[in-house]
Amino acid sequence: MQNGRVHPASEDNDMLLAWVLGWSELVAFGALLSAFLVAGYVQPAAFAEGRGHLALWYPLLNTVILLSSGWCAAKAACYPTGAPKQRTALVGAAAGGFAFTAVKIAEYLRELPHLSDERLETFNQLYFLTTGFHLVHVIFGSLVLIVVACRPGRENVAIITTLWHVIDIVWLVMFPVVYAI
């Protein structure tokens, strides 16, 4: 840092860190989703019954919410740093994350009665672990989007919008694995 300005190499390192984090998240979710697929292969009847308890409209609504939120994040990355439109787009992306959270909590509340069914134990464990891990990322990402909206910097916006799109990609892969296959 010279004269209060971030050195370009620092920005490159920040983006490298964002990509390493993004790819490590994809690997972690890949392992969880692989476990879900393998367990579903080993216990097809239990997984079919477990999926039968899930209300498909929750994840469908959450898909629309996350895609809309991702669009807001993409728009934020295109606006000039600190511009009111950029801040609004970042807050819009965060609002989508919070809406996703509300829908996911409603979905979890609906699933609670099925937790006591021992035949569905593996399905329930993997369902809540996988979707819960994703939900934690959505909540954390939403909070970071708000912080960046308050203190935007070109590299901050680029990093959080990149990571927000990783969260979107994970959901788009998770949706068919958890709810449909």
From TrEMBL:
It is a multi-pass membrane protein. Keywords: Membrane, Plasmid, Transmembrane, Transmembrane helix. The chain crosses the membrane at residues 16-42, 54-77, 89-106, 126-150, 157-179. One of its GO terms (biological process) is aerobic electron transport chain. SUPFAM superfamilies: Cytochrome c oxidase subunit III-like (SSF81452). The keyword Transmembrane applies. It is found in: Cell membrane; Membrane. InterPro entries: Cyt_c/ubiquinol_Oxase_su3, Cyt_c_oxidase-like_su3, Cyt_c_oxidase_su3-like_sf, Cyt_c_oxidase_su3_a-hlx. It holds the Pfam family COX3. GO terms for molecular function: cytochrome-c oxidase activity. GO terms for cellular component: plasma membrane. Residues 1-181 form the Heme-copper oxidase subunit III family profile domain. Belongs to the cytochrome c oxidase subunit 3 family. PANTHER family: CYTOCHROME C OXIDASE SUBUNIT III, NITRIC OXIDE REDUCTASE SUBUNIT E. This is Nitric oxide reductase (Cytochrome c) subunit E. It comes from Rhizobium gallicum bv. gallicum R602sp.
